[in-house]
Write a structure and sequence with these properties.
Blueprint: H1 4-11, H2 15-22, H3 30-42, H4 49-59, E1 62-68, H5 74-90, E2 95-101, H6 105-117, E3 122-125, H7 131-142, E4 147-150, E5 161-164, H8 167-181, E6 186-192, H9 198-214, E7 218-225, H10 230-243, E8 249-252, H11 257-266, E9 273-277, H12 281-288, E10 294-297, H13 300-317, E11 325-327, E12 331-333
Parallel strand pairs: 1-2, 1-3, 3-4, 4-5, 5-11, 6-7, 6-8, 8-9, 9-10
Antiparallel strand pairs: 10-12
């Protein structure tokens, strides 16, 4: 069984330094911490589980959770996962601070600063894909405050891990579905949430790339953004259909699905085929009615619970998550299985 002394000898540091790294106690040089963690992982270091429980209870860990608040009911299901894990972690004297913000970098950074000021030990974040947010995550890493991203990710940051769907693969899946439900030929309008949210842009990228390589009879006519807002989605979808009456299919990459579909219905366009994401109550109803042909789901409950589980484990054992990208299942729902 590997000991802290063995790790310290191999890393060329003191046992105290190894203890601080493995138990996330006190500041340690980032390169030294990474070296210690790599050695511990290579030697399959396993701390005493009973000691972990006791140590966790003494630490009184406090975790921050920052999710988007765009009135998209999808995040209500993510929050249910957070709350379920919160109940589990309460027995370890671990508390959770939850904040929700819109699609705005300054709002998100202000929320991060707020929870940091309350002495949190780590953060679960649905990141706005902008440079100031990336810099803030890297700044937290240097301070020894780990970040795990959920639902959407941010590239080139020092976040610990990601939990959510493989957005690009979901976009490819949507392209395949579009090919099937349209008979292989369609004029498509794309309706997205924000170009500053990675899961939205990657779903479009996967969709577009798959169309170019496999389904060249599918044509993208136009793309719009609705900020995940139902009213904005209704207005912009209505204008889109007026400007491009040739559209025969719509691809919703985010929220605002109900508002967009209402615009389709009010335009009397029963010929339009629609693909969306998630099965929030209004989307489920529209699938049952045949308005939406298929919706791609991404396990929102898991996106709320698993990041907290991973972060708590890291903070109490020092063990890095087994996988950097923890992808949820791609779950396709149609009227017959919604």
């Amino acid at each position: 069984m590997t000991t802290i002394r063995e790790i310290a000898d191999l890393a060329g540091v003191s046992r105290g330094t190894v203890d601080r790294v493995l138990n996330n106690r006190g500041a340690v040089n980032a390169d030294t911490a990474r070296k210690v963690m790599e050695i511990a992982k290579a030697l399959d270091y396993r701390p005493n589980r009973a000691g972990i429980v006791l140590a966790a209870q003494k630490k009184n860990l406090k975790l921050g959770v920052i999710l988007f608040d765009t009135k998209n009911p999808f995040f209500d299901e993510v929050l249910e996962g957070v709350q379920a894990e919160e109940e589990e972690l309460a027995s370890y004297n671990c508390s959770i601070i939850i904040r929700r913000v819109g699609f705005d970098a300054s709002e998100q950074i202000a929320a991060i600063d707020e929870v940091v000021s309350q002495g949190i030990n780590g953060i679960i974040l649905s990141p706005y894909n902008d440079e100031p947010v990336r810099q803030k995550i890297n700044e937290l890493f240097q301070k020894g405050i780990p970040v795990i991203t959920t639902n959407t990710d941010i590239r080139d940051s020092k976040r610990l891990a990601f939990v959510g769907s493989d957005f690009y693969r979901c976009g490819e899946t949507a392209a395949g579905l579009m090919h099937l439900i349209t008979g292989g030929s369609a004029k498509i309008g794309i309706i997205s949430g924000s170009s500053k949210v990675l899961c939205h842009t990657d779903r479009i990228a996967g969709f577009e790339d798959c169309i170019r390589s496999h389904y060249t009879d599918l044509t993208i006519v136009a793309s719009i953004e609705n900020s995940d807002d139902e009213f904005e989605s209704y207005e912009k979808t209505s204008r889109l259909l007026q400007m491009h009456p040739e559209i025969t299919a719509l691809y919703f990459t985010a929220g605002g699905v109900y508002g967009g579909c209402r615009a389709v219905q009010n335009a009397g366009r029963k010929d339009i085929r629609i693909i969306s994401y998630d099965k929030v109550p209004t989307t489920k109803e529209l699938v049952e009615q045949g308005v939406i042909s298929a919706t791609i789901c991404q396990q929102p409950f898991v996106q709320g619970s698993k990041p907290l589980e991973l972060l708590f484990s890291y903070l109490t054992t020092g063990e890095l998550p087994e996988k950097e990208n923890n992808y949820t299942a791609v779950d396709i729902r149609i009227r017959e299985n919604i």
